[in-house]
Amino acid sequence: MFLPLEEQLRRIRQGAEQIVPEAELLAKLERSAKEDRPLIIKQGFDPTRPDLHIGHGVSIHKLRTFQKLGHRVVFVMGDFTARVGDPSGRDETRPMLSEEEIESNLATYEEQLFRILDPETTEIRRNSEWLARLTLADILRLTSQYTVARMLERDDFAERHREGRPISLVEFLYPMMQGHDSVALRADVELGGTDQLFNLLLGRTLQERAGQEPQVCLIMPLLRGTDGRRKMSKSYDNYIGISMEAEDAFGRVMSIPDTLLEEWISLASSARGEELARRRREAGTDPLAAKRWLAGDIVARYHGAAAARRAREAFDRLHRHRKVPEDIPTVALSLDGRDGLWIAHVLRDSDLAYSSSEAGRLIRQGAVRVDGDVIADRDLRLGAGEYVVQRGKRKFARISVEP
Questions:
Q1: Distance CA 66, CA 318 (A)
Q2: How many domains does the chain have?
Q3: Are 180 and 106 contained in the same domain?
Q4: Which residues contact 79 (CB under 8 A, 6 or more apart)?
Q5: Residue 217 in contact with residue 192, Cβ under 8 Å?
Q6: Which of 30, 31, 32, 64 is 20 to 30 A from 214, alpha carbon to alpha carbon?
Protein backbone atom coordinates (compact mmCIF):
# COMPACT_ATOMS: atom_id res chain seq x y z
CA MET A 1 0.00 0.00 0.00
CA PHE A 2 1.54 3.27 -1.12
CA LEU A 3 1.21 6.61 0.69
CA PRO A 4 -0.83 9.39 -0.96
CA LEU A 5 0.98 10.99 -3.91
CA GLU A 6 1.51 14.39 -2.27
CA GLU A 7 3.06 12.78 0.80
CA GLN A 8 5.38 10.69 -1.37
CA LEU A 9 6.40 13.80 -3.32
CA ARG A 10 6.98 15.78 -0.11
CA ARG A 11 9.39 13.16 1.22
CA ILE A 12 11.17 12.77 -2.12
CA ARG A 13 11.58 16.56 -2.57
CA GLN A 14 13.05 16.97 0.93
CA GLY A 15 16.74 17.81 0.58
CA ALA A 16 16.73 17.31 -3.21
CA GLU A 17 18.35 19.89 -5.46
CA GLN A 18 16.25 19.27 -8.56
CA ILE A 19 13.73 16.78 -10.03
CA VAL A 20 13.84 16.60 -13.83
CA PRO A 21 11.00 16.64 -14.76
CA GLU A 22 8.82 16.61 -11.64
CA ALA A 23 5.57 16.21 -13.58
CA GLU A 24 6.83 12.88 -14.95
CA LEU A 25 7.72 11.70 -11.44
CA LEU A 26 4.18 12.46 -10.31
CA ALA A 27 2.79 10.48 -13.25
CA LYS A 28 5.07 7.53 -12.47
CA LEU A 29 4.07 7.55 -8.80
CA GLU A 30 0.39 7.70 -9.75
CA ARG A 31 0.70 4.74 -12.13
CA SER A 32 2.76 2.83 -9.56
CA ALA A 33 -0.01 3.17 -6.98
CA LYS A 34 -2.72 2.29 -9.51
CA GLU A 35 -0.91 -0.85 -10.71
CA ASP A 36 0.48 -1.71 -7.26
CA ARG A 37 3.94 -1.86 -8.85
CA PRO A 38 7.01 -0.38 -7.16
CA LEU A 39 9.18 1.97 -9.19
CA ILE A 40 12.76 0.96 -10.05
CA ILE A 41 15.07 3.49 -8.41
CA LYS A 42 18.63 3.37 -9.69
CA GLN A 43 21.92 4.72 -8.46
CA GLY A 44 25.47 3.52 -8.88
CA PHE A 45 28.99 4.21 -7.77
CA ASP A 46 32.23 3.20 -9.39
CA PRO A 47 34.53 1.29 -6.98
CA THR A 48 37.50 3.62 -7.54
CA ARG A 49 38.11 3.59 -3.76
CA PRO A 50 37.29 1.03 -1.05
CA ASP A 51 35.35 3.52 1.09
CA LEU A 52 31.94 5.04 0.68
CA HIS A 53 31.71 8.29 2.63
CA ILE A 54 28.95 10.39 4.18
CA GLY A 55 28.86 12.50 1.02
CA HIS A 56 27.69 9.35 -0.81
CA GLY A 57 25.36 8.83 2.14
CA VAL A 58 23.33 11.94 1.19
CA SER A 59 21.88 10.19 -1.86
CA ILE A 60 21.95 6.68 -0.36
CA HIS A 61 19.67 7.91 2.44
CA LYS A 62 17.34 9.25 -0.28
CA LEU A 63 17.32 5.74 -1.78
CA ARG A 64 16.23 4.53 1.66
CA THR A 65 13.38 7.06 1.55
CA PHE A 66 12.17 5.47 -1.68
CA GLN A 67 12.34 2.04 -0.03
CA LYS A 68 10.22 3.28 2.88
CA LEU A 69 7.71 4.54 0.31
CA GLY A 70 7.44 1.01 -1.11
CA HIS A 71 9.75 1.23 -4.13
CA ARG A 72 12.65 -0.98 -5.18
CA VAL A 73 16.27 0.17 -5.27
CA VAL A 74 18.75 -1.15 -7.80
CA PHE A 75 22.27 -0.24 -6.75
CA VAL A 76 24.73 -0.48 -9.63
CA MET A 77 28.29 -1.35 -8.77
CA GLY A 78 30.21 0.14 -11.68
CA ASP A 79 32.86 -2.54 -12.01
CA PHE A 80 32.97 -2.02 -15.80
CA THR A 81 32.71 1.79 -15.87
CA ALA A 82 35.40 1.98 -13.18
CA ARG A 83 37.86 0.80 -15.81
CA VAL A 84 37.22 4.10 -17.61
CA GLY A 85 36.67 6.39 -14.64
CA ASP A 86 33.96 9.05 -14.43
CA PRO A 87 35.31 12.29 -15.95
CA SER A 88 32.59 14.41 -14.30
CA GLY A 89 34.10 17.50 -12.73
CA ARG A 90 37.65 16.47 -13.56
CA ASP A 91 40.21 18.53 -15.44
CA GLU A 92 42.29 15.56 -16.58
CA THR A 93 41.88 11.95 -17.64
CA ARG A 94 41.47 9.56 -14.69
CA PRO A 95 43.99 6.69 -14.62
CA MET A 96 42.44 3.30 -15.41
CA LEU A 97 42.14 0.81 -12.55
CA SER A 98 43.18 -2.82 -12.76
CA GLU A 99 40.65 -5.61 -12.23
CA GLU A 100 42.39 -6.51 -8.97
CA GLU A 101 41.98 -2.95 -7.63
CA ILE A 102 38.32 -2.88 -8.65
CA GLU A 103 37.55 -6.23 -6.99
CA SER A 104 39.38 -5.23 -3.82
CA ASN A 105 37.33 -2.03 -3.57
CA LEU A 106 34.04 -3.77 -4.39
CA ALA A 107 34.53 -6.22 -1.53
CA THR A 108 33.82 -3.44 0.99
CA TYR A 109 30.73 -1.89 -0.61
CA GLU A 110 27.92 -4.23 0.36
CA GLU A 111 28.54 -4.04 4.11
CA GLN A 112 28.68 -0.24 3.94
CA LEU A 113 25.52 0.04 1.83
CA PHE A 114 23.47 -2.06 4.20
CA ARG A 115 24.23 0.27 7.08
CA ILE A 116 21.63 2.45 5.31
CA LEU A 117 19.61 0.39 2.82
CA ASP A 118 17.14 -2.42 3.49
CA PRO A 119 18.60 -5.61 1.97
CA GLU A 120 15.09 -6.98 1.33
CA THR A 121 14.24 -4.23 -1.16
CA THR A 122 17.72 -3.69 -2.60
CA GLU A 123 19.04 -5.35 -5.73
CA ILE A 124 22.80 -5.07 -6.28
CA ARG A 125 23.97 -5.39 -9.87
CA ARG A 126 27.35 -5.10 -11.57
CA ASN A 127 27.24 -3.22 -14.85
CA SER A 128 29.73 -5.66 -16.36
CA GLU A 129 26.69 -7.98 -16.63
CA TRP A 130 25.51 -6.07 -19.71
CA LEU A 131 28.39 -3.78 -20.70
CA ALA A 132 30.99 -6.56 -21.01
CA ARG A 133 28.71 -8.37 -23.46
CA LEU A 134 28.49 -5.47 -25.93
CA THR A 135 30.02 -6.25 -29.31
CA LEU A 136 31.74 -3.66 -31.48
CA ALA A 137 28.54 -3.46 -33.54
CA ASP A 138 26.57 -2.76 -30.33
CA ILE A 139 29.00 -0.02 -29.33
CA LEU A 140 28.81 1.57 -32.79
CA ARG A 141 24.99 1.63 -32.55
CA LEU A 142 25.23 3.14 -29.06
CA THR A 143 27.66 5.90 -30.03
CA SER A 144 25.62 6.77 -33.14
CA GLN A 145 22.84 8.00 -30.87
CA TYR A 146 24.76 11.04 -29.61
CA THR A 147 27.00 13.69 -31.17
CA VAL A 148 30.39 15.11 -30.25
CA ALA A 149 28.85 18.60 -30.26
CA ARG A 150 26.32 17.57 -27.60
CA MET A 151 29.03 15.84 -25.57
CA LEU A 152 31.09 19.05 -25.60
CA GLU A 153 28.18 20.89 -23.99
CA ARG A 154 29.27 19.35 -20.70
CA ASP A 155 30.96 22.04 -18.63
CA ASP A 156 34.04 19.99 -17.79
CA PHE A 157 34.56 18.79 -21.37
CA ALA A 158 33.89 22.28 -22.76
CA GLU A 159 36.47 23.86 -20.46
CA ARG A 160 39.15 21.28 -21.25
CA HIS A 161 38.45 21.59 -25.00
CA ARG A 162 38.61 25.39 -24.83
CA GLU A 163 41.93 25.29 -22.97
CA GLY A 164 43.45 22.68 -25.27
CA ARG A 165 43.70 20.00 -22.57
CA PRO A 166 43.26 16.44 -23.85
CA ILE A 167 39.99 14.52 -23.71
CA SER A 168 40.27 10.84 -24.53
CA LEU A 169 37.61 9.13 -26.65
CA VAL A 170 37.07 6.63 -23.86
CA GLU A 171 35.91 9.51 -21.62
CA PHE A 172 33.17 10.26 -24.14
CA LEU A 173 32.10 6.64 -23.75
CA TYR A 174 31.64 6.94 -19.98
CA PRO A 175 28.32 8.85 -19.95
CA MET A 176 27.11 6.61 -22.79
CA MET A 177 27.82 3.52 -20.67
CA GLN A 178 26.14 5.03 -17.60
CA GLY A 179 23.13 5.88 -19.74
CA HIS A 180 23.06 2.33 -21.12
CA ASP A 181 22.88 1.08 -17.52
CA SER A 182 19.47 2.79 -17.30
CA VAL A 183 18.36 1.10 -20.53
CA ALA A 184 19.48 -2.33 -19.27
CA LEU A 185 17.61 -1.87 -15.97
CA ARG A 186 14.59 0.02 -17.37
CA ALA A 187 15.06 2.53 -14.56
CA ASP A 188 12.14 4.76 -13.55
CA VAL A 189 14.24 7.16 -11.48
CA GLU A 190 18.00 7.69 -11.26
CA LEU A 191 19.74 9.56 -8.46
CA GLY A 192 22.98 11.48 -8.76
CA GLY A 193 24.85 14.50 -7.48
CA THR A 194 24.74 17.90 -9.16
CA ASP A 195 27.85 16.94 -11.15
CA GLN A 196 25.93 14.00 -12.66
CA LEU A 197 23.04 15.86 -14.31
CA PHE A 198 24.47 15.53 -17.83
CA ASN A 199 25.00 11.77 -17.43
CA LEU A 200 21.50 11.23 -16.05
CA LEU A 201 19.87 13.26 -18.83
CA LEU A 202 21.82 11.24 -21.40
CA GLY A 203 20.28 8.14 -19.84
CA ARG A 204 16.85 9.62 -20.58
CA THR A 205 17.86 10.13 -24.23
CA LEU A 206 19.11 6.57 -24.65
CA GLN A 207 15.98 5.12 -23.02
CA GLU A 208 13.72 7.09 -25.37
CA ARG A 209 15.70 5.89 -28.39
CA ALA A 210 15.40 2.33 -27.09
CA GLY A 211 11.60 2.74 -26.99
CA GLN A 212 11.44 2.99 -23.18
CA GLU A 213 9.76 5.57 -20.99
CA PRO A 214 12.61 7.88 -19.89
CA GLN A 215 13.77 7.97 -16.29
CA VAL A 216 13.26 10.91 -13.98
CA CYS A 217 16.51 12.49 -12.78
CA LEU A 218 16.65 13.20 -9.06
CA ILE A 219 19.59 15.49 -8.40
CA MET A 220 21.04 15.63 -4.88
CA PRO A 221 23.38 18.33 -3.56
CA LEU A 222 27.08 17.59 -3.13
CA LEU A 223 28.38 17.67 0.44
CA ARG A 224 31.51 19.76 0.89
CA GLY A 225 34.34 17.98 2.66
CA THR A 226 35.97 18.70 6.00
CA ASP A 227 38.16 21.39 4.40
CA GLY A 228 35.06 23.49 3.75
CA ARG A 229 35.97 24.12 0.11
CA ARG A 230 35.86 21.13 -2.21
CA LYS A 231 33.31 18.35 -2.53
CA MET A 232 33.92 15.44 -0.19
CA SER A 233 36.40 13.00 -1.70
CA LYS A 234 38.97 10.54 -0.45
CA SER A 235 41.31 11.95 -3.09
CA TYR A 236 41.29 15.25 -1.20
CA ASP A 237 41.49 13.54 2.23
CA ASN A 238 38.52 15.68 3.30
CA TYR A 239 36.09 12.82 3.86
CA ILE A 240 34.45 10.86 6.66
CA GLY A 241 34.01 7.24 5.66
CA ILE A 242 30.80 5.37 6.41
CA SER A 243 32.88 2.57 7.97
CA MET A 244 35.53 4.84 9.51
CA GLU A 245 36.25 4.13 13.20
CA ALA A 246 33.65 5.90 15.34
CA GLU A 247 36.19 7.91 17.35
CA ASP A 248 37.97 9.10 14.20
CA ALA A 249 34.66 10.10 12.61
CA PHE A 250 33.59 12.01 15.73
CA GLY A 251 36.92 13.86 15.84
CA ARG A 252 36.77 14.74 12.13
CA VAL A 253 33.30 16.24 12.49
CA MET A 254 34.51 18.29 15.46
CA SER A 255 37.31 19.68 13.30
CA ILE A 256 35.14 21.05 10.47
CA PRO A 257 34.91 24.84 9.97
CA ASP A 258 31.88 26.49 11.58
CA THR A 259 30.87 27.71 8.11
CA LEU A 260 30.01 24.09 7.18
CA LEU A 261 27.65 23.47 10.07
CA GLU A 262 24.32 24.43 8.51
CA GLU A 263 25.12 22.54 5.30
CA TRP A 264 26.16 19.38 7.15
CA ILE A 265 23.21 19.52 9.54
CA SER A 266 20.87 19.80 6.53
CA LEU A 267 22.50 17.13 4.36
CA ALA A 268 24.37 14.69 6.60
CA SER A 269 22.33 14.54 9.83
CA SER A 270 19.14 12.71 10.74
CA ALA A 271 17.36 15.93 11.78
CA ARG A 272 14.09 16.72 10.01
CA GLY A 273 11.26 19.23 10.39
CA GLU A 274 11.34 21.41 13.49
CA GLU A 275 14.43 19.70 14.88
CA LEU A 276 16.31 20.53 11.68
CA ALA A 277 15.30 24.20 11.96
CA ARG A 278 16.34 24.24 15.63
CA ARG A 279 19.72 22.64 14.96
CA ARG A 280 20.39 25.08 12.11
CA ARG A 281 19.61 28.00 14.44
CA GLU A 282 21.93 26.52 17.06
CA ALA A 283 24.74 26.42 14.47
CA GLY A 284 24.59 30.22 14.38
CA THR A 285 24.22 30.85 18.13
CA ASP A 286 26.30 28.06 19.69
CA PRO A 287 28.46 26.37 17.02
CA LEU A 288 30.37 24.20 19.49
CA ALA A 289 27.18 22.67 20.89
CA ALA A 290 25.83 22.21 17.36
CA LYS A 291 29.04 20.52 16.29
CA ARG A 292 29.03 18.13 19.27
CA TRP A 293 25.43 17.16 18.49
CA LEU A 294 26.25 16.72 14.79
CA ALA A 295 29.31 14.55 15.50
CA GLY A 296 27.26 12.28 17.76
CA ASP A 297 24.38 12.12 15.30
CA ILE A 298 26.59 11.17 12.33
CA VAL A 299 28.40 8.47 14.33
CA ALA A 300 25.07 7.10 15.61
CA ARG A 301 23.68 6.94 12.04
CA TYR A 302 26.44 4.61 10.90
CA HIS A 303 27.67 2.91 14.09
CA GLY A 304 24.78 3.08 16.57
CA ALA A 305 24.01 5.12 19.69
CA ALA A 306 26.39 3.20 21.97
CA ALA A 307 29.35 3.83 19.64
CA ALA A 308 28.42 7.52 19.49
CA ARG A 309 28.42 7.73 23.28
CA ARG A 310 31.83 6.05 23.53
CA ALA A 311 33.24 8.32 20.82
CA ARG A 312 31.99 11.41 22.64
CA GLU A 313 33.52 10.20 25.92
CA ALA A 314 36.85 9.46 24.20
CA PHE A 315 36.86 12.89 22.57
CA ASP A 316 36.16 14.61 25.90
CA ARG A 317 38.81 12.58 27.68
CA LEU A 318 41.37 13.61 25.10
CA HIS A 319 40.42 17.19 24.30
CA ARG A 320 38.50 18.51 27.27
CA HIS A 321 40.45 16.78 30.01
CA ARG A 322 43.73 16.36 28.10
CA LYS A 323 44.00 12.70 29.05
CA VAL A 324 45.62 9.93 27.04
CA PRO A 325 43.06 7.42 25.67
CA GLU A 326 42.79 4.19 27.64
CA ASP A 327 43.17 1.73 24.78
CA ILE A 328 46.22 2.99 22.88
CA PRO A 329 48.47 0.31 21.34
CA THR A 330 51.77 -0.60 23.02
CA VAL A 331 54.79 -1.01 20.75
CA ALA A 332 58.00 -2.67 21.98
CA LEU A 333 61.22 -1.49 20.30
CA SER A 334 64.83 -2.37 21.03
CA LEU A 335 67.98 -0.25 21.08
CA ASP A 336 70.07 -3.20 19.87
CA GLY A 337 73.25 -1.56 21.10
CA ARG A 338 72.44 1.91 19.76
CA ASP A 339 72.57 5.06 21.87
CA GLY A 340 68.96 5.91 21.02
CA LEU A 341 66.15 5.42 18.48
CA TRP A 342 65.60 8.19 15.95
CA ILE A 343 62.15 9.70 16.48
CA ALA A 344 61.30 9.41 12.76
CA HIS A 345 61.94 5.66 12.91
CA VAL A 346 59.89 5.40 16.10
CA LEU A 347 56.95 7.05 14.36
CA ARG A 348 57.33 4.77 11.35
CA ASP A 349 57.76 1.55 13.35
CA SER A 350 54.74 2.32 15.54
CA ASP A 351 52.49 2.98 12.49
CA LEU A 352 52.10 6.65 13.40
CA ALA A 353 53.72 7.53 10.06
CA TYR A 354 53.97 5.67 6.77
CA SER A 355 57.67 6.46 6.38
CA SER A 356 60.50 8.34 8.06
CA SER A 357 60.15 11.13 5.48
CA GLU A 358 56.49 11.56 6.40
CA ALA A 359 57.54 11.55 10.06
CA GLY A 360 59.97 14.39 9.33
CA ARG A 361 57.20 16.39 7.68
CA LEU A 362 54.90 15.83 10.68
CA ILE A 363 57.61 17.05 13.06
CA ARG A 364 58.15 20.20 10.96
CA GLN A 365 54.41 20.84 11.18
CA GLY A 366 54.45 20.56 14.97
CA ALA A 367 52.16 17.51 14.82
CA VAL A 368 54.27 15.18 17.00
CA ARG A 369 54.35 15.06 20.80
CA VAL A 370 56.34 12.87 23.17
CA ASP A 371 54.90 12.67 26.69
CA GLY A 372 52.76 15.72 25.93
CA ASP A 373 55.56 17.96 24.65
CA VAL A 374 55.67 19.15 21.03
CA ILE A 375 58.80 17.88 19.28
CA ALA A 376 60.69 20.37 17.11
CA ASP A 377 64.01 18.48 16.88
CA ARG A 378 63.92 16.05 13.95
CA ASP A 379 67.14 14.43 15.24
CA LEU A 380 65.65 13.53 18.63
CA ARG A 381 66.70 10.08 19.90
CA LEU A 382 64.72 8.09 22.49
CA GLY A 383 66.72 6.09 25.02
CA ALA A 384 65.56 3.11 27.07
CA GLY A 385 62.24 3.70 28.83
CA GLU A 386 58.52 4.17 28.20
CA TYR A 387 57.02 7.06 26.22
CA VAL A 388 53.60 8.17 24.98
CA VAL A 389 54.04 9.34 21.39
CA GLN A 390 51.24 11.27 19.74
CA ARG A 391 50.58 12.17 16.11
CA GLY A 392 48.07 14.96 15.57
CA LYS A 393 45.06 15.07 17.85
CA ARG A 394 43.88 11.48 17.87
CA LYS A 395 46.67 8.99 17.16
CA PHE A 396 48.76 7.61 20.05
CA ALA A 397 51.17 4.81 20.80
CA ARG A 398 52.79 3.75 24.06
CA ILE A 399 56.43 3.06 23.16
CA SER A 400 58.53 0.73 25.26
CA VAL A 401 62.21 1.07 24.33
CA GLU A 402 64.24 -1.82 25.67
CA PRO A 403 68.07 -1.77 26.07
A1: 40
A2: 3
A3: yes
A4: 47, 102, 103, 106, 126, 127, 128
A5: yes
A6: 64
